Amino acid sequence: MRCPKCQSLKSSVIDSRQAEDGNTIRRRRSCDQCGQRFTTYERIEEKTLVVVKKDGTREQFSREKIFNGIIRSAQKRPVSTDDIDEVVNRIEQKVRAQGA
């Protein structure tokens, strides 16, 4: 994984555990170069979801867009990234359930 601070590709896994949803592995990592600690999530790759926009165009569902939008809207609030990630997980699960 690339370090978010120094962009180094060398990191060590400190802790690894299954996330609450049961489909994701949460890994706590430490950058070997700068010592920055960060969290990564690994999940099973599922079928691609396509979102139909208001103008009729289609684009691939993006967890990152939802995550970044929530981060922007909650930036002055005491909300952790773990809480935001849980919200994004629930949104994605609901979208997948509707699309199935």
TrEMBL record:
InterPro entries: ATP-cone_dom, NrdR-like_N, RNR_NrdR-like
Secretion signal span: none
Keyword Transcription regulation tagged: yes
UniProtKB keywords: ATP-binding, DNA-binding, Metal-binding, Nucleotide-binding, Repressor, Transcription, Transcription regulation, Zinc, Zinc-finger
Zinc finger (unnamed): 3-34
An MF annotation (GO) of this entry: ATP binding
Coiled-coil region: none
Alphabetical GO biological process terms: negative regulation of DNA-templated transcription
Family label: Belongs to the NrdR family.
Purpose: Negatively regulates transcription of bacterial ribonucleotide reductase nrd genes and operons by binding to NrdR-boxes.
Protein name, as recorded: Transcriptional repressor NrdR
Organism: Streptococcus suis (strain GZ1)
Gene that specifies this protein: nrdR
